[in-house]
Amino acid sequence: MIRPEAIADAIGIVTWPTIVRLLRAETRAPSSKDFIVTARGMDYDHARIILAKPCCRSSSPSR
Q: What DSSP element (H or E) covers 55?
């Protein structure tokens, strides 16, 4: 009889590349946002961009 853990392991081994690809795309997506590009152009460091991101969203006018 096949153990349920073995089935779960097999599914995990087969599907992990898709999950990693999606995770990578989601973490890289914000780097192309307008306020990130502008902050890089103003020579802000990474910490300032990360900390200012929520403030920029809440203070910008909605379209």
A: helix 46-59
